[in-house]
Write a structure and sequence with these properties.
The structure holds two protein chains of two kinds.
Chain A: H1 3-10, H2 27-43, H3 48-63, H4 68-92, E1 97-103, E2 106-111, H5 112-136, H6 141-150, H7 155-184, H8 191-222, H9 240-261
Antiparallel strand pairs in A: 1-2
Helix pairs in contact in A: 2-5, 2-9, 3-5, 4-5, 6-7, 7-8
Chain B: E1 4-6, H1 10-29, E2 32-33, H2 45-72, H3 76-90, E3 95-96, E4 105-106, H4 111-118, H5 120-137, H6 146-170, H7 175-199, H8 209-222, H9 224-246, H10 248-253
Parallel strand pairs in B: 2-4
Antiparallel strand pairs in B: 3-4
Helix pairs in contact in B: 2-5, 2-6, 3-4, 3-5, 4-5, 4-6, 4-7, 5-6, 6-7, 7-8, 7-9
Classes of the chains: A mainly alpha, B mainly alpha.
């Protein structure tokens, strides 16, 4: 029932806090890689490039000992979307009949062009999402904020991102406790009660968030906050490895773009 | 007639049939339905650029609003951050999908509520950050589809919810109904936005944009999301009434209500 359990397991930076070769790479290099590779993934006209990204992401994640279950749990929703797209496109696009079957009297015809197009989109979804989770499994929010700041994302936006991320976990815990209390007192015995209980719970959540905002401001004020920047993480200067990774990408990108443009299938 | 009737290539058909049924069973048994975010890799490059170009000015104005207010009222930043986090958590609430007899749950958008509490531009900014967090840490949505998702959930959801709330207040409707309409309409516009974005994809393949958009929107509304709009509206209504009864000062401080507001 509780997607909050799902969030607690998926929404965790425990892997990003480990010390391994990927977490040690500078966040600016990682951001540069992820943006370039996602663009190439979108640009690709065949399934080779997205499949390559998917396989490399898995290899890279296994190399830093991320459990397969954790990867699959993160990819569960995109995988279901990808399969849905494959089926919908296969059923609706194209003329040439590839296969037909009947399920409980309902005839379904999969078409060749649709399945090809669906497989292409499906591979892009999986390729893209595998890149994103590789990034999120290896980057903490503080590093991400510092990287975004370096890329000239407005300070206010980065500060809000840091604040929101920091308090989401706290509010999740409070809500989980209140939710369990409501359930044990039959607050969710019917749909009507669930809606009303959710309203009460969210009202309490807003009130607590408001109070916490006041307390947080007071704590920030006594530490000298006057409306200026609240981010304190600074990035270290680029190392030789970072320069090498950056230049490596500059060379690899054209090859990937070229390969992605070849009509293999 | 058996459960399956095969065309050509029996072994392949059998595998495909089992796979299809397994997939539908997986969906039917899935605990949570996520539908309002377009996932990574779906939008072609030119639509990615287009939707980012549409969304960035709104996010920029939101940043400007927060920055300006932060200068005169330093407590505004933690307030927006905290309320943004609260709305994010609210958007993760499991709401039973009544159309599926409670077999699955869906979750609210939350933009209607954030627009009512924080104003439309700041709500767009909060939605953009929430979508970024979801894309990065939950693989829900995507980085290349962020612009498109900000347009549907952030811009359309926030502005529709905010204006409907203000119109309902002008019509002197009780607070519950103002919140109900804001929550419901912002949800409907979010799904409409997503349908438009997906509908636009058929233009290249020679399909009809209006037909595709209507079909996608129809599917959204007829499955879990139609009922969810009403449920989210009711929840937002109850939230506002609850806060108004317990701590009206919060709503006065945020400029949500005036002295002559009727709660129910």
């Amino acid at each position: 029932m509780m997607p909050m359990d799902f969030f607690h397991h998926t929404f965790s930076d425990v892997y990003a806090r480990q010390n391994n070769w990927l977490t040690r790479i500078d966040v600016r290099v990682k951001l540069f890689y992820i943006i370039s590779l996602l663009a190439i993934n979108l640009w690709a006209k065949n399934i080779f490039i997205p499949s390559l990204f998917l396989s490399i992401s898995f290899i890279v994640l296994f190399s830093i000992r991320i459990p397969l279950f954790a990867i699959l749990r993160s990819m569960l929703i995109p995988i279901s979307f990808a399969i849905l797209i494959l089926i919908i496109k296969g059923l609706h696009e194209g003329e040439k009949e590839w296969i037909s079957l009947s399920i409980v009297g309902c005839k379904m015809t999969f078409r060749e062009e649709g399945l090809r197009s669906g497989l292409h989109t499906c591979s892009k979804v999986l390729g893209g999402i595998s890149l994103v989770i590789t990034f999120s499994f290896t980057t903490t929010i503080s590093r991400l904020c510092a990287g975004l700041k370096w890329f000239r994302v407005p300070n206010t936006m980065v500060e809000l991102l840091a604040l929101m991320y920091r308090y989401i976990f706290l509010l999740f815990d409070e809500v989980s406790t209140m939710w369990t209390a409501q359930k044990s007192r039959l607050g969710h015995a019917s749909w009507g009660k669930t809606i009303k209980s959710s309203g009460t719970l969210c009202g309490l959540l807003i009130m607590r968030a408001f109070d916490r905002a006041e307390r947080t401001y007071e704590a920030m004020y006594v530490r000298g906050y006057d409306g200026g920047s609240i981010l304190t993480v600074n990035l270290s200067p680029w190392r030789k490895e970072d320069y090498a990774s950056f230049i490596g990408m500059v060379f690899i990108a054209p090859m990937l773009v070229y390969t992605g443009n070849v009509y293999v299938w | 007639m058996g459960f399956f009737c095969f065309g050509k290539g029996d072994t392949l058909s059998r595998i495909l049939s089992v796979f299809t049924v397994a997939f539908f069973l997986f969906f039917a048994a899935a605990n949570t339905a996520y539908a309002m975010h377009i996932t990574e890799g779906i939008l072609p490059f030119r639509w990615v650029v287009t939707w980012f170009a549409v969304s960035v000015p709104f996010v920029g104005i939101g940043v400007y609003h927060v920055k300006r207010k932060k200068r005169t009222m330093p407590s505004y930043l933690p307030l927006v951050g905290m309320l943004g986090a609260a709305v994010f958590v609210f958007s993760c609430f499991p709401i039973p999908v009544i159309a599926l007899n409670g077999m699955a749950t869906s979750h609210p958008c939350g933009t209607g509520m954030s627009a009512v509490l924080l104003g439309p531009f700041v709500s767009v900014l909060v939605a953009a950050i929430a979508l970024l967090i979801q894309a990065l840490f939950l693989a829900h949505g995507g980085l290349t589809t962020l612009g498109g998702n900000i347009f549907s959930m952030g811009i359309l959801g926030s502005f529709s919810g905010y204006f409907v709330f203000k119109i309902a207040q002008r019509c002197r409707l009780p607070l519950f109904w103002c919140g109900f309409l804001a929550g419901m309409v912002s949800d409907i516009f979010t799904y409409l936005g997503t349908s438009i974005e997906l509908g636009l994809l058929v233009i290249n393949t020679g399909g009809s944009f209006f037909k595709a958009t209507a079909e996608i929107f129809g599917v959204f509304m007829m499955t879990s999301q139609g009922v969810l709009c009403i449920v989210e509206g009711a929840v937002v209504g109850f939230v506002l009434v609850f806060i108004y009864k317990r701590r009206p000062a919060i709503l006065f401080y945020l400029g949500v209500v005036k002295d002559d507001t009727k709660p129910m």
